[in-house]
Amino acid sequence: MVQLHDARRRHYDVRLEVDGVLKSWAVPLGPSLDPVVKRLAVFTTDHALEYATYEGVHAEAKYGSGAVIVWDAGVYTNLTRDKQRRLVEPADAIERGHLKFRLRGVKLDGTWAFTRTDRDWLMVKVRDESADPLLDLTATEPRSVLSGLTIDEMAATAT
C-alpha cells in the first residue's frame, strides 16, 4: 500500500508486508511510471500491519504528525532473483539491498525495484506494459482509495 503523508514534508510512504510487518520507504516525489526516473526512497521504521488502513490526522505521534491518506492499496508479488535465478525472500532481498516486485493496486500496476545506494534507496519503475513516461499519477489521482478524500481535505477534518 501507499500512503500520502503530509508531515514536515509531504511524501508517499510505500509499505510492503514482509514477515508480519510493513517495511516502509518514504518517497518524497511518489512513485513514477517512467523507467528513466530514479526516485529517492528513504528506508524508515517498520510499521504494524494495522497501519495499512490508517487515515486521519495525528498530532505529534509515533509516526510523525500531519494528515495521512491511503493513496493506493493492493497486493505485491516478490520477483527478486539471485544470480542462479532462484527466488530471494523479501526480507533477504532488503538485507541484500535490492527488491524487485510487481504491484497490483487500484492506481499502480506493474513492476518496480528498490535498490540501496551508499546512503539511501532508489525506487525505479521497471520497463513493462504499465510504464508511461507521460503519466504522473501523483498529479492526476490525488484522492484516497479508501475515503475518497484528498490530503488537504483530510487535513481539514482536524480543525
What's the helix and strand layout?
Layout: E1 2-6, E2 10-18, E3 21-27, E4 38-43, E5 56-58, E6 66-72, E7 74-78, H1 90-96, E8 98-105, E9 109-116, E10 121-125, H2 137-140, H3 151-156
Antiparallel strand pairs: 1-2, 1-6, 2-3, 3-4, 4-10, 5-6, 7-8, 8-9, 9-10
InterPro entries: LigD_PE_domain
Pfam family, one: LigD_N
Protein name: DNA ligase D 3'-phosphoesterase domain-containing protein
What would you say about this model in short?
This protein is mostly beta strands and 159 residues long. Helix content is 11%, strand content 40%.
Keywords:
159 residues, 3 helices
Question: Care to describe what's here?
Answer:
The protein is mainly beta. It has one domain. 11% of the residues lie in helices and 40% in strands. The protein contains 3 helices and 10 strands, in the order E-E-E-E-E-E-E-H-E-E-E-H-H. The protein has helices spanning 90-96, 137-140, 151-156; strands at residues 2-6, 10-18, 21-27, 38-43, 56-58, 66-72, 74-78, 98-105, 109-116, 121-125. The chain has a 10-stranded antiparallel sheet with strand order 5-6-1-2-3-4-10-9-8-7. Strand 1 (2-6) and strand 2 form a beta hairpin. The longest helix has 7 residues, at 90-96. The chain is globular and about 55 Å long. The mean pLDDT is 95. Residues 3-116 form the DNA ligase D 3'-phosphoesterase domain. InterPro entries: LigD_PE_domain. This is DNA ligase D 3'-phosphoesterase domain-containing protein. It comes from Kribbella lupini.
